[in-house]
Amino acid sequence: MARLRQLIVYRGIMQDPVMAAVQEMLDCENARQRMDKACELAGRLIEKAEQYLLEGNIMEAWIWHLILNDVNPFSLDCERRSAGDSGSLYQAVLWDMGILKSVVAKVQEELESAGLQKITRQYVRDTKGKDGRLPARRRRDILAGFLQTLSFADPACQASSIADAAKEYYETNGCGVMAMYPMFRWSQTRGLVGIEYYDDIRLSDLVGYEYQKRTLIENTSSFVKGRPANNVLLAGAGGTGKSSSVKALVNEYFEDGLRLLEMGKEQMPLLPDVMKFLTGRGKRFILFIDDLSFEDQETDYKYIKSLLEGSAEKKPDNVIFYATSNRRHIIQQKWKDRDLNHMDEEVHGIEAMNEKLSLSQRFGITLTYPVPKQDEYLEIVSHMAAELGVNGDAQELRQKALQWALDQKGFSGRSARQFISAYAAQKQSEGRP
């Protein structure tokens, strides 16, 4: 039986090592060889189960994983909410789901013949501890939901039911890695790469800067709803919560289709390729550049400048730029730019200054994050202590927090977080929370 090769829309899943093992097992005519291949398949399934936190019928769970993560014309149309259920593409999807149903049924038979059904149909992971990877836990819960309602091996389960469930999933979550991860990095070789251990901070975790938070919420909410929104520059001293504010927004609006793609300033020449990739995707992206600043001689800023405004290459409607910088004007200026002694120097000097100022001016919103005052710093410390359940004398906490700021880098949210981590560790070593 080699029907996997007859897949039309979902041919991409044939590249998966588990499906390659399935194909090899089904191709075997010798019973002894099929037994060996069944054991090899079971081993591959166990590897995936441990890696992706799968339980129960791990063959069906893995098939669902492949379907939900496959990027193809159907899943992309669904992500953009433009897929129908009567055209030729949908009919091809029904064909594929019918093939996968028959393949799964045959695989279950072979695994049962090999005496492996208890392992592969009722798989239980030994490690029940909390997994730190939020995307892995989300994936586990989603797959468990599908397994409870739909079974490929069940004759009563129609191919159309499977196709419609996949369609609904794509429309809600997107397809490929875009469905599971709120935050991404860009790799020149791999493209969009999901961040497994990302910062799950929420806006409620951030103390102070109420005007800045309110402005970010209003602008981001407008963007998520497809309304006009501005690119944003968050400027201010280090450790004041600029990056945390942007990441908190993505966690708040993930279910509404918002994603974050973080890029370094050294990746600016890749922006045209990134824009091409994101164009037409069904999710909305904050393209986030942390610590955006350029030295006097650097010119890579021109890539982002041209996309922000004034270039023939239009920024996609589903992309917005948020950047942080310790410099309000991003590009370093020197006194020589202002030291104008002659007419020609004046002309070129003004042009140089205008060039350097123009990048920051192309952000529609600039939010300033000043260093917190002493009472604001102590409020942040108190909030973090309560969040972590750190108990102790309030006066002692205050005095040690102030001493920490004096010894370290002054008043900032980052200093407060570092202090609380050290203070909590000290209390634990003393045997009290």
TrEMBL record:
Keyword Nucleotide-binding: yes
Name of the protein: ATP-binding protein
Keyword set includes Phosphoprotein: no
Domain of life of the native organism: Bacteria
Pfam families linked to this entry: DUF815
InterPro entries associated with the record: DUF815 (IPR008533), P-loop_NTPase (IPR027417)
GO molecular function: ATP binding
Organism: Bianquea renquensis
Keyword entries, A-Z: ATP-binding, Nucleotide-binding
